[in-house]
Specification:
- With 731 residues, the protein is mainly beta.
- The chain has a single domain, classed as TonB-dependent receptor, beta-barrel domain (Maltoporin, Chain A, Beta Barrel), CATH 2.40.170.
- The protein has seven helices and 40 strands.
- It has a 22-stranded antiparallel β-barrel. Strands 5-10-11-8-9 form a five-stranded mixed β-sheet.
- A hairpin with a 3-residue loop joins strand 17 and strand 18.
Length: 731
């Protein structure tokens, strides 16, 4: 599979050139395989480092794996073969993917939580820790780096890890234009136009895409348009300038919400009448841009990025309508200097991140749409027909974050690298209440701060093998949405909601066996979390709002394994396994039964929404002569619980199975043929997902009211597409 095509960044060396696996020139008497090796380096650690010197688990996915024969609808397409990271495709464009790394992020009600996401040097994660992936267009992505595990020592408000995406490089010709079209099941239509080129020291990439999608379920219609522009200029050998502008416009994205177990099994494509009558959907526009100036020599590296964004959101949900205008900006700077090489080598890295966020939030009651229109609206007219209720919230919200950090890398001997560092983060939250008709001023401030240290060791007993271990800490604040959503419906910020604090250990082995075409990656980890933020809903059938509370203590222990093998130049195989035991260590939950309120200790229960096991296997075959390729992969996800009680809550007589998302296995198949000519090329491809039409739920809503936990996924689906690159000028 394409996710197998890139070598994992746990490998120290790429095999180059493309015929590295072939026998030597037949004229030579040496019949041994001739390998040409060069180091693999990543930037997710804030400066360029060889992967075997990094005392964490890191992976890389290249352009071929991201784009070839994929519709580009979900990040799951690109990272499905990586251990430790699970993307629950919610089959709901309005809510987006739920991404978790080592179980962190599984609680997100929308967008991405617990994971820092950076696109072309610009964070898609806002100052409060919430990430929106609207501006991420996988059809123009060229490289994805995933740093698994606590990352606050480098990135601040990120407990689970880091996903760093870079747009593809421009071709080495003045202009190349690539129209691309995809059509498929459930009304899928996607049109893309890409223009890129190089001229002297300048490069540019412009990518346009538009999407129409009816969705597998009722009330799941979506329409969006995105434009990504990247410009690069080489000032000289050391200085490089990059400019980025991203624009996204979704005039409507309907939200089918979740279902209870019985309905999810018997009528998975349905959406509740109440959800449809409330016009559950969203309309969003977002513009983001920035400029990065990078300096890089053999001993010094530095980068400064200035960025800004604006976002408008109109979001009817059951029970409420949210009208939000958001602005954000920041400066990210890092400088790294190395002295000495080999024994006694020392590198000092220091940086500072400044970020601000300003929200203008208004909320209203939701009086819904006229009854005779329920089930008939399929586009942006839903917003014209929606009736706003009484105002409920009107406030300005601000977040100011500052995060200085420092890291030392010491090489006491050539085969040992010791890394130590830390970061101090301070976030100031302020709410200014403008809704004073309730005669209550709920204005207020919250300050959350922590120092996050990290210590790691990498030992290379052989040139292409490394053992590593680390102690890491992490810090994660509640978002402004989590702070402002209060069951009491009061304004301001929830004074009882505290940030998460994490401490963890990890040991691992990573390496490469060149003669066998084999790469391997194994990691064991254990971490504990204080005040983990958990979602819940209140007992109110007239709302689907999600609120948050802190669990006392939780802990996660796990194992991650990955093996890739290239027995032939055209054949790639991969196997990846993730096993976790994520459970409450000390969590008392209040529950009212028979008019009596009691506290229940949930110690030993599993954290909902986190699969204890996930297995991936697959292969890719690319015929070198014809340009044809075929990929098949299989995934198995074990059953997991949907609520904190891991079954019926006290006072409930429902069966235990209603609180479990059953395990499932999926098989995907895709194939195509490509041609690369001097002027005109082309690729024709097709895919079938869920080949054996498995009935399953792709994700859940933890602790949902009415036990409506489940978000059903589609059965067998298909898509076909083609691209037609046309170039002007020589390569």
């Amino acid at each position: 599979m394409k996710s197998l095509l890139p070598f994992s960044v746990v490998i120290l060396f790429y095999l180059l050139p493309a015929n590295a696996w072939q026998q030597s020139d037949p004229d030579t008497t040496d019949a041994s395989v001739d390998f040409i090796l060069q180091p693999v380096e990543v930037r997710a650690t804030r400066y360029v480092r060889p992967v075997l010197d990094i005392p964490y688990a890191v992976d890389v996915v290249d352009r071929n794996a991201i784009q070839l024969a994929e519709p580009g609808l979900s990040l799951e397409e690109s990272v499905r073969s990586l251990p430790g990271i699970i993307v629950h495709n919610r089959n709901n464009v309005s809510q987006g993917d739920r991404i978790s790394i080592r179980g962190l992020g599984s609680r997100a009600s929308f967008g991405v939580r617990g994971v820092k996401v950076v696109l072309d040097g610009i964070p898609l994660t806002m100052a409060d820790g919430q990430s929106q992936l609207n501006n991420l267009d996988l059809t123009s992505a060229g490289r994805i780096e995933v740093l698994r595990g606590p990352s606050s020592s480098l990135y601040g408000n990120a407990a689970g890890g880091v996903i760093q995406i870079r747009s593809e490089s421009a071709p080495d010709r003045p202009l190349e234009v690539t129209p691309r079209f995809i059509t498929g099941s459930h009304g899928l239509r996607r049109i893309q136009g890409k223009a890129a080129g190089s001229a002297g020291d300048n490069q540019f990439l412009v990518n346009y895409n538009t999407l129409w999608f009816d969705g597998f379920r009722e009330h799941a219609f979506a329409r969006s348009t995105g434009i990504n522009v990247v410009g690069k200029r080489v000032i000289n050998e050391a200085w490089h300038l990059t400019s980025v502008i991203n624009y996204y416009n979704a005039p409507y994205q309907f939200n089918p919400s979740s279902l209870d177990k019985a309905t999810a099994e018997t009528d998975p494509a349905s959406a509740r009448f109440f959800v449809q009558s409330q016009g559950a959907s969203k309309r969003v526009k977002q513009t983001q841009g920035g400029v990065s100036l990078r300096y890089e020599t053999e001993v010094r590296q530095g980068e400064v990025t200035v960025f800004g964004m604006g976002r408008s959101l109109f979001n009817p949900i059951p029970g409420r309508v949210i009208d939000l205008d958001r602005r954000g900006a920041g400066i990210r700077g890092v400088f790294s200097h190395r002295t000495g090489i080999g024994t006694g080598g020392l590198r000092l890295t220091a940086g500072l991140d400044l970020e601000i966020q300003r929200d203008d939030r208004r909320e209203y009651g939701n009086d819904g749409i006229p009854g005779d229109l329920v089930g008939t609206l399929v586009d942006g007219r839903v917003f014209d027909e929606l009736s706003l209720g009484d105002p409920r919230l009107d406030q300005e919200e601000s977040v100011d974050g500052i995060g200085p950090f420092v890291e030392f890398e010491w090489t006491p001997r050539p085969d040992v690298v010791i890394t130590a560092g830390g970061r101090y983060d301070r976030f100031s939250f302020e709410a200014t209440d403008r809704f004073l008709s309730d005669k209550t001023d709920d204005s207020g401030t919250r300050t959350m701060a922590q120092f996050s240290p990290q210590l790691g060791l990498a030992f290379r007993p052989a040139p292409v093998t490394a053992f590593y271990g680390n102690f890491s800490t992490a810090f994660q604040t509640p978002t402004t949405s989590e702070l402002s959503n209060r069951p009491t419906e009061a304004g301001g910020f929830n004074p009882a909601l505290e940030p998460e604090q994490l401490r963890g250990f990890e040991v691992g082995l990573k390496g490469f066996v060149p003669d066998a075409g084999l790469t391997y990656d194994a990691a064991l980890f254990a971490f504990g979390i204080s005040n983990m933020l958990l979602p819940f809903q209140i007992d109110n059938p007239e709302t689907d709002e999600i609120f948050f509370r802190n669990a006392g203590k939780t802990r996660n222990r796990g194992i991650e394994l990955k093996l890739t093998w290239s027995p032939l130049p055209a054949l790639d195989l991969a196997l990846a396994y993730t096993g976790m035991r994520f459970e409450f260590d000390d969590f008392e939950l209040e529950r009212e039964v028979d008019d009596n309120t009691r506290l229940y200790q949930l110690s030993g229960n599993e954290v909902p929404g986190v699969p204890p096991h996930h297995l991936f296997a697959g292969f890719t075959y690319s015929h070198p002569g014809t340009g044809s390729f075929v990929e098949m992969n299989a995934q198995w996800t074990a059953k997991y619980f949907a609520n904190d009680f891991n079954g019926p809550a006290p006072g409930s007589d429902k069966p235990a199975s209603d609180f479990v998302n059953d395990g499932y296995g999926l098989v995907d198949l895709r194939a195509g043929i490509s041609y690369n000519g001097d002027v005109v090329g082309g690729v024709l491809f097709a895919g079938v997902n869920n080949l054996f039409d498995t009935r399953y739920n792709g994700s859940i809503v933890p602790n949902a009211f009415g036990d409506r936990f489940f978000e059903p996924a589609a059965g067998r689906t298909w898509y076909v597409g083609f691209g037609l690159p046309i170039g002007a000028g020589p390569r």
